[in-house]
Amino acid sequence: MNPIKQLHDIIEKSDNIVFFGGAGVSTESHIPDFRSDNGLYKRKYPYPAETMLSHTFYTQHPKEFFEFYFNEMIYQDAVPNKAHAALAKLEQEGKLKAVITQNIDGLHQKAGSLNVLELHGSVLRNFCTRCHKAFTLEETIARRDQDGIPRCDVDNAIIKPDVVLYEEGLDESVIYAAVDAISHVDTLIVGGTSLVVYPAAGLIQYFRGKNLVLINRDSTPMDGKATLVIHDAIGKVLDEAVNG
To answer: Which among 11, 66, 173, 238 is placed 20 to 30 Å from 226, CA to CA?
Structure first.
């Protein structure tokens, strides 16, 4: 049977689905992933991307951190793609109970998804590191000083994006909610992730349901344990599987 037809049938027979996604979900919205040939980690900078996105680098080199962050992590013109739209439709139909995402772009919510668990935070939320005043992305960009560092209008402290940097821990409440969702689901659809970044990738071990579906252009360490594996563009796959 055609694998997309198989996925369609799995979705039709399930009313308790969770989607777990990574950077590959947003590449069709022209946001680069990390590890592909055109990914963020292949860009030429004085330091590796992993270093520049670390908490230590943020604290020790804020000017260089924010230059990299605003140049490489912010895509204000990005719009949801077919994958985001298909998932929002499944939630509206009552089939999809949660979206668990490693992405920080907010595109799932922009597409209409309501129950989104953001493991690594969001560029859309920003806060003053001293008084904790909240800022939108647009306000944060507008508050940059001569060195490109966003500053609070109340106390001039740095405005930090609400994203999880390397060396920082994930939000425990989000992790607990993700574990709870995955452990009670019938069908888990995993898409656009290489499943090599922990602790996020380790969430799949809590799945006890019937159908584990993996959608990714490249193989993953979990392919051998999946009910269905589809190596194709996730937007195309989900659009055809959901909309027929």
So the answer is: 173
CB proximity list for 173: less than 8 A, separation 6 or greater: none
Please confirm, yes or no, whether 231 is among the known catalytic residues.
Answer: no
* Residue-level pLDDT at 197: 73
Looking at per-residue pLDDT, the higher value among 56 and 46 belongs to: 56
Q: Over the stretch 182-228, which tens digit does the pLDDT of each residue have?
A: 999 999 999 999 888 777 778 999 999 999 999 998 888 889 999 99
Structure tokens at 205: 């071990």
Q: What are the structural domain ranges in the chain?
A: 1-31+80-120+169-244
Q: Which of 84, 120, 132, 231 is catalytic?
A: 120
Q: What is the CATH number of domain 1-31+80-120+169-244?
A: 3.40.50.1220
Q: Which two tokens stand for residue 24?
A: 């590959």
Distance between CA atoms of 20 and 194, rounded to whole angstroms?
12
CA 87 from chain centre, in angstroms, equals 14
Residue 150 to residues 86, 98, 175, Cα–Cα distance (Å): 36, 33, 29
Q: The whole model's pTM is what? A: 0.94
3-state secondary structure of 142: helix
DSSP bridge partners of 116? 99
Examine residue 199 and say whether the peptide bond preceding it is cis (omega within 30 degrees of 0).
yes
The span from the CA of 87 to the CA of 225, in Å, is: 23
User: Can you give the pLDDT at residue 117?
Assistant: 98
